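Form 7-S
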Amino acid sequence: MLTGLGEITEKLRRSTAVIQSRGHCCGSGVIWSSDGSIITNAHVARGMRVKVQLWDGREFDATIASRDSRRDLALLRIDAMNLPSVSVADSSQVRSGELAIAIGNPLGLVGALTTGVIHTVSPLRGLGSQSWVQADVRLAPGNSGGPLADARGRLIGINTMIAGRLALAIPSNVVRDFLSTGPSDAWLGVMVHPVRIPRPDGAERSVQAFGLLLCEVEPDSPASFASLLPGDVLLGTEEETFASLADLAKILQGSNGRLLRLEFLRGDYSLVRRVTVQLGVQRSSRDSVAA
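Output:
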């Protein structure tokens, strides 16, 4: 099974791209098809301007064709042909104890290789009902979006995060489902962190509301044009409050331009503010102000 491992990993390297967002090397991508389709994580393909560097040194401006924050997947397209696309396996056939090969660009080291074994393919407590390919391979920042492959070099998952000592990858069958549904997610342009907010005056001090703290607002994003700022706390929409991070991903689903009315807190937690965010439309100037 290990015969030709060098050739297998070299082929994987040629099918792995460096993904740059906002001028920084921040992750990896997988050449899905020879006509310029590249899969990566949604959290890697951040912002409106993404660059892709191929194994041969060529660089391209990429278009984000589709993004799904809930599944943390993004489809990029570049103007290139005859690319060395990856071979894709059926992730439902992956078994515990099989060899796992990961390629990526951790900490700026291009094409780094790490190997290990498959632990399981199943959901993980605390991360919802989604199944993950869980492998005993060592990943670092920059591996996100890169391939996790079997001993034959076939893609079985997209490396996404680390939980404890295990690397978690999105199964290849989930990627296929994502691609079959087409564009599915609007870009808001924020990094958020779940928080609990004490209820203001009059409420029991033990009762807390759920919110999403804006840790970062990307320039020229819908959130930025709506005057949302780092430190603001999203509470939900006028119709429904957020109870989890998945609720934000849910309301962003959809490929058409539309208006989204959000409620949030800024400074004074007793005052709920409201703002209208325009999704799915590129703009060059601010024309909305948080109220």
